[in-house]
Amino acid sequence: MNVRTKRTVNTTIGVILTAIMLFPLYWMINVSLTQPVRLRKDPPDLIPIDPTFDGYARVLQDQLPYLGTSLIVGLGTVALTLALSAPAAFALAKLRPRGGGAVDFVMLIAQMIPGIIMAMGFYLIFFNWGILDSVLGLILADSTLAVPFGVLIFTAFMSGIPEELMSAAKIDGAGAWRSFRSVVLPISRNSVVTVSLFTFLWSWSDFLFASTVNRGGELQPITIGIYRYIGNNTQDWNAIMATAVVASIPAAVLLVVAQRYVAAGVTAGAVK
Amino acid sequence: MTAMQTVPRTGTGGGTDPRRGVAPTPGATRPAERRAERPAQRSQRLRHQFVAWGFIAPVAIYMIVFYAYPLFRNLDLSFRDYTLASFITGEAPFVGIANYVEVLRSPTFWPALGSTAVFTLGSIAVQFALGLALAVFFYRRFPLSTTLRALFLVPWLLPLLVSASIWAWMLNSDSGVVNAALAVFGISQVNWLTSPQTSMIGVLIANIWIGIPFNLVIMYAGLQNIPDEVYEASSLDGANAWQTFWRITFPMLRPVSAITLLLGLIYTLKVFDIIWIMTRGGPGDSSTTFAIWSYRLGFGGGSPDLSPAAAVGNLLIVIAFVFGIIYIRTQRRTEDEL
Amino acid sequence: MDKNRTARIVGATVLSGVFVAAALTGCSSTPSDNDSSGSTEYTLWDPYPDRDASSDWAKAIDACAADIGITIKRNAGNTGDTVKDLTTAAAGKLPDIAMVDNPKVSTLADAGLLTTTDDNGLDVSDIQENILTAGQIDGKTYGVPVGANTLGLYYNPAVLEAAGVDIASVTDGASLTAALEKVVASGKKGITFSAVGTEEGSFQFLPWFWGAGADLTALDSSEAVSALTLWTDWVKNGLAPQSVLQNTQGTSWDEFKTGEFGFAENGSWFKSDADAAGYNSIQIPGENGKPAPAPTGGEFITIPIQKDTARYATSVKIVKCLTEGNTGADSLGYVAPTAAGQEAQLAADPTLEGWVTAVGDAKPRTADNLGVKYGTISEQLYTAVQNALSGGLSPADALAAAQKAASEKLG
After folding, report:
1. Rg value, chain A, Cα
2. Are the beta carbons of A123 and A212 closer than 8 angstroms?
3. Who contacts B110 (Cβ-Cβ below 8 Å, separation ≥6)?
4. Which of A19, A156, A227, B288 lies 20 to 30 A from C40 at CA?
5. Domain that holds residue C326
6. What does the alpha-carbon distance between residue C353 and residue C263 come to, in Å, rounded to a whole number?
7. A163, HSE (Cβ side, Cα atoms, 13 Å)
8. Chain C residue closest to B168 (CA)?
9. Closest C-alpha to A113, from B206, B310, B292, B108
10. Beta-strand (E) ranges in B144-266?
């Protein structure tokens, strides 16, 4: 078959696969619009019959501050993670100090520690430093989800940057920091976007750290905000699912935009 | 991501190796050479080390404060007998390995180990296979492929509370849409999360769903690392798509696959929320993994047994550690072969 | 570098890191210095994140604060995390007032996190006796209930009428089973409840357990087995859906509200919801013709230990304000804890009588001097229920295993 047909077939298959993958999200929207008395109907409604928008009304009224906080925490976590992991990875990959291998190994081990252990430790540390219930504390906590991963990814990527580029910079008289800033970072745009993406997503969906170190703060992220709709005996499913839907939209847009950016970087000026 | 070799060359922090044919970088010298160098060179080398560690220092301090401390506390918890009262009085007698013995002798130990193995290996195997298949598919670059690929990441946006709740909803034995769909094909009701035989399958499905995006992104990046010339050469030789994939693509993806599988394993070992929200580790113990068991011992069950919970948590870390060592040795051997 | 060297460097780094970390985090200002918010701000932790600033509960707290002339900073968290949160906070600073689910009070008291009425000077003389005992260990009182709730058997009159069931005929397990069969024969579903693998599951099973004459210290008695067999047979014979194993009480209520069910076991907090939908309720039938004793639910208000003991006097005033009368209990949908409060509630709504009686007949879960042991027993109980209902074990085997595990753990 010709290229055009092949492309159309591929696109169709792609759409179907994506639809299957995203079906639970559709169900989320379905539940958010379902009347409470129909929630547990057997068999369930495939499309919301007599939809109710109460959940969304409540969410738009309550949750915007939480969304804003999640956004700030997410961006802050990305900034901190990049600031910590990129220079370290550069050193490990390009400067290769003695003991560098051990650092790599530690990065792997660090990710093995279960979250609840980390959370309980953080509580004590943050309490002693006075940053409990604060956005800064949450940023610090969430960054632990991503920093080791970031170091691993950046190290892997930067190892592949050809030595000629580094030598050229050295001949021009650049020190380590200049090489990092002017030569390595611009080329690493793709890995920067990737690490940023993962960091943001992990931070956005974190609940464990938020509930441990920010239980009573003025500014709380959306994962805590959802608990406004979970009482000790009842759950308001319309509002819970509506919160998830509303929270996903801006982040989904961010995702699509970011992917385009990575793709653009791939085809233009690829480093082999 | 381009030119990504995902093998962090652990264990090779310094030193040149003529077998590898890698040009020596400044500061990485062998002892014999070091003895012969002049003082100027030596101070330059030291300064180089100093600068390099300067880049690493912030992360190093960060790791010590935020990782070493919780780990230390957990080890402490597991070697003492902590009760809730200990948090007030500060008293917790040292009991050596008693907690570990208690954990190993518990009737939950072997089932939990089995469940952990099934859950972890089942998850990473299927996640990886599907992620790779999707990556290969999306690599064909048809219209909308970029957007669709981005949409595949949306499951990650959801708080785990929501994803787990939605899956629990869809897999509900009576009012779930999955059973409703199966009924259309004449399959009788499957008690996904309420029967000990299928509860593990239920949580596996949910966990795999959540794990696919990670595998997709990393494997896709790995595919981008393979130069186009390789494909051109292969098609010139008359190989079809299937052969190209198995003989050329897949072997070249080995380093990426290794790190993906390892990270997948480490992350899956830690998985807690999904299983807890969907089944609480039940019915009975049928979906209780080590992570669930640890939480249940500490906070989820009847009485707070913090020390055994910490012991189970540490066992989890040990398991991950063992796989980490295996990974590094396999990497070293692969590198030696090159 | 060879592996040995790597390992040694890692070991050295970790060890030195550990010491540095311990030093860094250990030496700091003592927690009591952080009372920067001043002595007129009191912190209150409650498990009602769904009751926001505009809810009656928050308003009740604000009213109390205004009355006493202080500010109360309210912090609402998920009820499942209360023990974890208080434990974590114990290393730092505990709140002035903590509201805890009543079976957890003995756990926290045993840990030394709570003050007794001797310590804080709270007067509990007008609190109804049977709901107060959940907070009493060895004769000392560690908290007071903000209100009480309990379980009952709701029914859908329309479904029952269509099935030809007379509610007066439901007097014990057998007659209830017969009624369920009639309901199912008429095309509807029988009964929904919650048998989930958490404390909620034990809570829901206890009326049947106690109604059969069983005792929590002997989970494998024949009475216990007959109670569990009742439930198991319902699920096996299609009189109760499989989803009961997953259901929380909230989910079970959502199932009931679809109108497909004849009966639902659920709590007094749904009374207004039930009134609006036209449902009624009776007490859960026991096996000897009398209503079964149901467990008391509802949170306790406790006063955790503070370094500055002068704060207890004001904390006591807050507790008094919230438990006197019926404002606190009403805002949460509970029955008031004092006789005066209950009279006020009945005056406002006479249909509450059935529930007030039920609460009077109810039994705390930590009664019979079980105290801290209840948590362990309860865990085995709901595990046994899950094993039996899911078909993994027979009721007798499940309960035998539960009793064995409980005895081993409790020594």
Report:
1. 23
2. yes
3. none
4. A227
5. 37-145+297-361
6. 20
7. 7
8. C246
9. B310
10. none
Residue A208 in this model has a pLDDT that exceeds 90: no
Give dist(CA C109, CA B202) in Å, integer.
39
Q: Are C240 and C175 part of one and the same domain?
A: yes
Is residue C28 situated within a structural domain?
no
DSSP code string of A30-44? HHHHS-GGGTT-SSP
Residues C238 and C196 in one domain: yes
| Alpha-helical regions (H) of B21-68 | 31-36, 39-63
The verdict on a CB contact (< 8 Å) between C242 and B174 is yes
Domain total of chain C: 2
Closest CA to B101 of B81, B87, B86: B81
pLDDT at C281: 93
Question: How sure is the predictor about B33, in pLDDT bands with cuts at 50, 70 and 90?
Answer: low
* d(C-alpha C398, C-alpha C396), whole Å: 6
Q: How many CB pairs under 8 A join A and B?
A: 317
Sketch the domain layout of chain A as residue ranges: 19-52, 56-267
Q: Which residues of C touch B168 (CB under 8 A)?
A: 246
Any domain includes B90:
no
Bridge partners (DSSP) of residue A20 are none
Angle at CA B232, nearest 5°, toward B228 and B236? 170
Q: Is residue B73 included in any domain, yes or no?
A: no
Closest CA to B308 of B98, B69, B115, B87: B98
Shortest alpha-carbon distance between residue A11 and chain B (Å): 6
CB A221 within 8 A of CB A208: no
Distance from CA of A226 to the nearest CA of B (A): 9
Both tokens of C89, joined, read: 């906070």
Q: Can you give the CATH number for the domain in which B205 is found?
A: 1.10.3720.10
One domain for residues C232 and C267? yes
CA distances from C311 to B212, C39, C95, C294, C307 (A): 54, 8, 11, 37, 9
**Per the CB < 8 Å rule, is A128 touching C28?**
yes
Continuous segment of H or E residues that includes residue C135 = none
- pLDDT (tens digit per residue) in C234-272: 999 999 999 999 899 999 999 999 999 999 999 999 998
Query: Is the CB of C109 inside 8 Å of chain B's CB atoms?
Result: no
Q: What is the mean pLDDT of chain B?
A: 81
Query: In this structure, are C60 and C83 located in the same domain?
Result: yes
ipTM reported for the complex, 2 dp: 0.84
C69: phi > 0 → left, psi -120 to 50 → alpha, else beta; which? Answer: left
A244·B28 Cβ contact <8 A: no
CA A109 vs. chain centroid, Å, equals: 21
Tokens 């014990």 found at: C172
CATH among 1.10.3720.10, 1.10.1040.10, 1.10.3210.10, 3.40.50.300 for A56-267: 1.10.3720.10
* CB proximity under 8 Å: C 84-113 to A: 85, 88-89, 91-93, 101
Does residue B36 sit within a domain?
Answer: no
Residues ≥6 apart with Cβ < 8 Å to B50: none
Mutate to test the interface with B, among C24, C105, C231, C386 (most CBs of B within 10 A): C386
What confidence tier does C81 reach under pLDDT thresholds 50, 70, 90? confident
- Do both C134 and C235 map to the same domain? no
The enclosing H or E element of A11 equals: helix A3-33
Domain identity same for C274 and C395: yes
Q: What is the pTM of this model?
A: 0.83
Question: Quick one: how far is CA B57 from the chain centroid?
Answer: 26
- Give chain B's domain count: 1
Examine the domain organization and report whether C238 and C340 are in the same domain. Answer: no
Distance CA A81, CA A103 (A): 16
Same domain (yes/no): C377, C334 = no
Classify residue B260: in a domain, yes or no.
yes
Task: Determine the angle formed by the axes of helices C311-323 and C56-68, rounding to 10 degrees.
Answer: 130
Domain enclosing residue B118, as ranges = 109-287
